[in-house]
Design brief:
By secondary structure, this protein is an alpha+beta fold. The protein has 12 helices and 22 strands. The N and C termini lie far apart (71 Å).
């Protein structure tokens, strides 16, 4: 409990009146009687607020899941307790996490709302907020600032009505971009009757025998039943395996058009995962470079979600990745590929998303040859706008000329590395963070169309 503004003004006036009492006996008497008369009133006002005033009860109602960037509503329920006196003034704060934007507080509640209500009848206050960062976040509680009847005192009351919620990437946006009917998507991209490289053949349909068909393809049981020669038609397995390896270390921990490159990369992974699952492929995701809990293979700080098939797997994938974040931590694409190779038992389309530089050429040189024997690898590198800006600007002065030359040399070395990988038969893609989703889907569809899987 602390003094209110009115009590501070009264104390200041009483102080100046006491100063005047040094020069006037009448002022001294007024100062004395004023103090003696106000002291019990001030004390009683504080005692009533602290011991007898109703501190209310607060409960928060919030959805367990929120979408990043989408406005959401939160409801607070305030109830009276068994105490008789209601504070003269009530101000409310909800202690929401720093990951959300809200301009609703402080709120001054009208005490008349509580008149005539029983102790269990709530008063509702609803406000809106906008989640900005993904992850699991906690609302610590609420605070009430209660004013005494004479406004001499203020009492801050904390209600530990903690709540937690999960903030996911905007699933509606992902579903709107990738929720197209599979057959229509295949027709628009020209993917008809594609023969994929798989582990074997799967049954497709029965049809009548035609000249040139192999005798081994005759279904004798169906032939005897229909009294004509029937052929079993096979096709190569269509369900392939796609693995995303996402760098969650320092390489993607940079801003691009106001957003972290890692956030754009994670949304692209989720989007392409949805498309791949719609195509019937198995999808797995691994991250490397951040100090989160470890699950599955990989060094300490990595995250691994083993490949699974079916669109019903997508919610589980979202639950495993919604709180994944990046940071200024070391990351090694070599270690990520090595751990993936140790746990993949079938041909897989591996998509590694990072920011590759000249020094990665030597560290990845020998493991890339191992990957080529069994898997198909796509190396995705996000462009650095800062370096491109420095390399393209017109320098003014010696210092800027040195920066421009260094940036140009750095970008040239990156491009030479990518060309050397392409000449060796690897799939390489360099794109900006904003165009990553569309570029990844187009490359995925091209690979499916080509039959390289």
């Amino acid at each position: 409990m602390k003094p209110g503004p009115l009590l501070a003004l009264i104390a200041l006036g009483w102080f100046f009146l006491g100063v005047a009492g040094f020069f006037s006996d009448i002022a001294a008497l007024v100062w004395l009687f004023t103090g003696l008369s106000l002291l019990p009133i001030i004390a009683a006002d504080g005692l009533v607020l602290f011991f007898l005033a109703d501190r209310l009860e607060v409960k928060r109602v919030i959805p367990s899941t929120l979408a990043q960037g989408e406005r959401a509503s939160v409801k607070l329920e305030l109830r009276r307790s068994q105490k008789i006196f209601l504070p003269f003034g009530i101000q409310l704060w909800d202690l929401y996490p720093s990951s959300v934007e809200c301009e609703a507080f402080p709120v001054v509640l009208d005490r008349k709302l509580f008149f005539g209500r029983d102790a269990g009848t709530p008063v509702f206050f609803e406000y809106s907020l906008v989640p900005r960062d993904r992850g699991q976040w906690f609302f610590r509680g609420t605070e009430l600032l209660l004013s005494s009847f004479c406004r001499f005192w203020r009492l801050k009351v904390f209600h530990p009505c903690g709540s937690s919620c999960r903030i996911y990437p905007d699933f509606k946006k992902i579903k709107a971009q990738a929720g197209t009917d599979l057959r229509g998507l295949l027709e628009r991209t020209g993917q008809k009757n594609i023969r994929m490289r798989g582990q074997g053949l799967e049954f497709n349909s029965l049809r009548d025998y035609q000249d040139g068909d192999s005798i081994r393809a005759i279904d004798w049981r169906a032939t005897s039943r229909r009294r004509k020669v029937i052929i079993r038609e096979y096709q190569e397995e269509q369900d392939q395996q796609v693995l995303f390896l996402l760098d969650s270390g320092y390489r993607l921990n940079r801003l691009d058009e106001g957003r972290l490159q890692f956030d754009s990369a994670l949304e692209a992974v989720l989007l392409l995962s949805w498309v791949s699952l719609k195509h019937g492929d198995s999808v797995g995701v691994g991250s490397f470079g951040s100090y989160h809990g470890t699950e599955g293979p990989g060094p300490e700080g990595s995250r691994w979600i083993g490949p699974r098939k079916g669109i019903s797997f997508f919610p589980a994938l979202m639950n495993s990745l919604y709180d994944l974040s990046c940071g200024p931590y070391p990351s090694s694409p070599f270690s990520a590929l090595e751990n993936a190779l140790a746990h993949l038992n079938r041909r897989t389309f591996i998509i590694l998303i990072s920011n590759f530089r000249e020094e990665d050429g030597e560290s990845l040189s020998w493991i890339l040859k191992r990957i080529e024997r069994r898997h198909l690898l796509l190396l995705v590198s996000l462009r650095e706008r800062e370096s491109e800006f420095l390399a393209s600007r017109k320098p003014e002065g010696t210092e800027e000329a040195l920066e421009t030359a260094a940036a140009f040399s750095y970008l040239a070395a990156r491009h030479e590395l990518y060309k050397s990988w392409e000449h060796s038969g690897l799939l390489v893609m360099e794109t900006s963070a904003g165009c990553l989703s569309s570029a990844l889907i187009n490359r995925y569809l091209q690979v499916k169309r080509s039959g390289r899987l």
